[in-house]
Structure formats: structure tokens, C-alpha cells
Amino acid sequence: MTNIGIFDSGLGGIAVLNELAKKNKANYFYLGDNLRVPYGNRSKAEITSFATDIVNFLEGYDIDYYIIACNTISVTCKDYLREKFKKKFITIADMAIEAAMEYDGDYLALGTKATMESHFYKTTLEAKKPCKVYESKAIDLVNLIEGGVLEGATLNGALDEYLSIANEKKLANIILACTHYPIIKGEISKRLDYKANIIDPAVFLADNIKTDDGANGVNIFMTKESQETSALIKKIMEVDYKLTFIGGL
């Protein structure tokens, strides 16, 4: 069996795990660090330290390769992790770029503070094709989603702020540059006053990773136990899984 390690700062990567497990049979070992979420407002040193903790934990499961299902980790320390652990790390951010290349027009990259301040999406896409990439720091979205706020006035107010440039300029493409955001993809679409392509890199990733081991083993580890976490995982996952709360790293 192929052992695939997947990790994120919290629940967001569960959407990535779900897409992968639906389409590709393998042993999946997912760790979400919801005890220390969000990562997007932290320093690079903290993010790197936390990501190292996560991989050290997952290394106990004989992982063949890793998927970094966190844009913040992807754009801050992927090279460090590759050098330290001498393994293949596929990043959701790189997959997002590949997915975005299939669409014409300008883009809004919607992500965390750390991801947007790296300017990864802007510099990479604008170097690859004639386009303009606008950046929106959606500072509160991860906390809202992790807290189970998936609809309503509070979420709508935040989305209206973060999507204002898209509505103003009628940007053709919205890149979900944080793996938490597909959980509220429908709400994002509703707050746009026009029709846009909403690019979910998890779908692109699942379509471009091929395994066929015959059966799935889906193991989810979270660092903090909460009813909201259990309920959201149950809502997102469309395949059988085992959930374990490990109480920190």
C-alpha cells in the first residue's frame, strides 16, 4: 500500500483529503493542528517549527510522500521540509498555480495573511502569463470556519470585505488559496455579484495524483478535541475514516 501523509494547520486540509480518498485508493495519514490554528498570522519561524513537529509525528507511519495541504506552510517552508526529511512534498499552492493556468483573465488570490504577504500567487502567475493577480488577506476566515461559522451575517460581512476588489473589478477567477475555503465555497459564490470561476486546487490535485491500491485506509489525527471539529469532519468526509484526537504534538 502507498502511505500518503497529508497535513494542515487545522480542518481545511480535510477537504483535500476527502477529494483524494474519493478518487485514489491508498493509506492516508492526515494531521490537522487545530490546537495551534491559525498559522496564517504567525511568523515564518513559528510556522516552520510547527510544520516540523507535524512531519516528525507522521514519520512514524512509514510515509512514502507528503502533501502539504496548507498554503501558509507551502509558501513559507516547503524547501526546508524537503531538505530536512529527504522526501517528496507536494504542495497545494503549486497545484493551485497549475489549476489557475487553465483559466483566462485576471485573478483574486484569497488567502491568509502569511500566504498573501509571500506574494507567491501574484509573482508566480504574473510571471507565467499576461494577467493581473489581486491579493486579499482573509484574516478572519480560518477562525470562523474552525469555529463552525459556515453561514450567516458574521461570515457574510467578512466575505463582503475580502471579496470587495473582486466585485469591484469583476475578476474572472477566484483562487481559494487556503484549504479551509472550499468548505464555504457556496457562500463565497453567493457574495459575488457576478459569475466567476472559483478555483479549488484540491480537486485539481486529486485528479492529478494516481494511486490504485485497492482499498482506502483513512486516518485523521487532530491535536485538539472539540465537538465542532468532529461535526465538520463528518460533514466534509464522504468516505470512511478513523478519527483520533492526540492532544498536541
Report on the architecture of this protein.
With 249 residues, the protein is of the alpha/beta class. It has 2 domains: 3-91 and 205-245, Rossmann fold; 94-203, Rossmann fold (3-Layer(aba) Sandwich), CATH 3.40.50. 45% of the residues lie in helices and 21% in strands. It contains 12 helices and 10 strands. The chain has helices spanning 13-23, 44-58, 71-85, 92-100, 113-118, 120-128, 141-146, 153-162, 164-169, 185-190, 201-208, 227-236, and strands spanning 3-8, 25-32, 65-68, 89-91, 107-111, 133-137, 173-176, 197-199, 212-222, 242-245. It has a 6-stranded parallel sheet with strand order 4-3-1-2-9-10, sandwiched between helices. Helix 3 links the parallel strand 3 (65-68) and strand 4 (89-91). The longest helix has 15 residues, at 44-58. Keywords: Cell shape, Cell wall biogenesis/degradation, Isomerase, Peptidoglycan synthesis. It comes from Anaerococcus lactolyticus ATCC 51172. It catalyses: L-glutamate = D-glutamate. One of its GO terms (molecular function) is glutamate racemase activity. It holds the Pfam family Asp_Glu_race.
